[in-house]
Amino acid sequence: MINLAELGRVFIVCGKTDMRRVIDSLAYIVKKSFNLDPFSGCVFLFCGSRRDRFKTLYWDGQGF
């Protein structure tokens, strides 16, 4: 269970993201496009084109 009070920074990735992308692909976007570490414990929110769904990338120390 993720305790929301203990989460670090939250980044909202602007623009449309293909919701078919998998964890590795989203981590690559975070690293290459934004020069951030996907393993830092921060939360990354990706929005789909219809803007009614989100994907979250979060490293809890054991996995995404």
What's the SSE blueprint?
Blueprint: E1 10-13, H1 23-34, E2 43-47, E3 54-58
Parallel strand pairs: 1-2
Antiparallel strand pairs: 2-3
How is this structure best described in words?
Strands 1-2-3 form a three-stranded mixed beta sheet, covered by helices on one side. Helix content is 19%, strand content 22%. It starts with 9 loop residues before the first strand and ends in a 6-residue tail after the last strand. The longest helix is centred in the middle third of the chain and has 12 residues. By secondary structure, the chain is an alpha+beta fold.
Strand order of the largest sheet: 1-2-3
Could you tell me the mean pLDDT? Answer: 89
By DSSP, the count of extended strands is 3
Q: H/E series, N to C?
A: EHEE
Radius of gyration: 11 Å
Number of helices: 1
Broad shape: globular
Structural class computed from helices and strand pairing: alpha+beta
Q: Which residues form runs of ≥5 with pLDDT under 50?
A: none
| End-to-end gap | 13 Å
What proportion of the residues form beta strands (DSSP E)? 15-25%
Share in helix: 10-25%
Main β sheet profile: 3 strands, mixed
Defining key terms:
1 helix, 22% strand, three-stranded mixed sheet, globular
